[in-house]
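Exam revision sheet. Question 4 asks you to relate a sequence to its structure. Input first:
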Amino acid sequence: MVEVDRHRLIDDLETLVEIRSITGSEENVADWAAGALLDVGLRVEVVRPDLATLRRDPAWPGEEMARQTLPIVVGRAGREGGRRLILSGHLDVVPPGDPATWTVDPWAGEIRDDRLYGRGACDMKGGVAAILAAVRALAASGELRQLDGELMVVLVPSEEDGGQGTLGAIRSGATGDMAIIPEPSRLDIVVAHAGAITFRLTVPGRAAHASQRREGISALDKLFVLTRALEDDERRRNEAETDPLMTALGLPYPTIIGIVEGGEWASTVLDRVVAYGRYGVRLGESPADAEAGLRAAIAEACAADEFLRDHPATVEITGGRFGSARVASDHPLPMGLAAVAERVTGRRPELLGEPYGADMQMFVNHGGTPCVIFGPGDVRVAHSADEYVPLDEVETCARVLAEWVRTEIGGSARNRE
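Answer key, structure tokens:
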């Protein structure tokens, strides 16, 4: 088995965390990543698709952050024309939030108790560092030059707000026979994940002086009516799920209201409330299907309410639209990866479903590429204050990824034939 340079891996991860690559501002981290792949010996290209053209693509996943460019880093090794494996990760991170909620500098990459802390350490710069370490290990052993197929490393922006980067990569030719994304999974294998759409709900009321509140109709009260309807819809949609990987989650398709805005004067009955929320996309359902379900639930609730029947709430889809994805549990990708992981670690990973959206669905649904998630870290600390990734898991992930490439298109693959 190949040996991973742990010290270089940690240096890479520290540098990645120090680069403030908030979604929409990924040029600096893309430049660094391109240089890192060049140093390893890959053939590297930075693709910047035309955003106007990409936004017209039927698979366009929406966006939440303003941007001028979409830098996609693609590195290649091995021979073209054979089997192609893809290792892919996203370079963007969410904002750190209130610095006072952190006990460390979110951009310093501080190490405590064999954990590296910082924004994006878990989601998913730990996984990107694992990719770099795996490729570097293959290069150091000489096997990168002897691949019986092609390895493609695809490092993308804009995963956090829908997946524009991976769509752009796919439209630029980044498809293959199999792909792994080392998003945080605690080194288990995610073969199914839900999706999500975000929405804006505008709810009307009728203004009146507070002293005469019975003459008015509070938009906040009507929001409560719609919230209860969404709760009923959430229950029905989750009870209808039959896939054991998703039912095991308890609530695989949550609906929430995350922001509520309204009112201009404390002594006036609210005549308008705007609420922003998230609506789950079920397995086998497209974002458009989910949108139709959301609109139907709101329309039904409005029709049943005396005021909203004549003054219905409006629904708008905003921001990212994450589809869902599923790879068969007995597909050669998860089966082969699980066997490699067990050989490397002595533990066979579980095959899981997850309730969140990810770029996996882009490869599966729009790239014709079977894809799974396998990476270091726990998603429960992603996007949080004091986000961290265990360094041992990053190193182990790198070893498994390198061994998987060797098994599928390296010397081990040739020896099986």
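Marking note for examiners. The chain has two domains: 6-193+324-416, 195-322.
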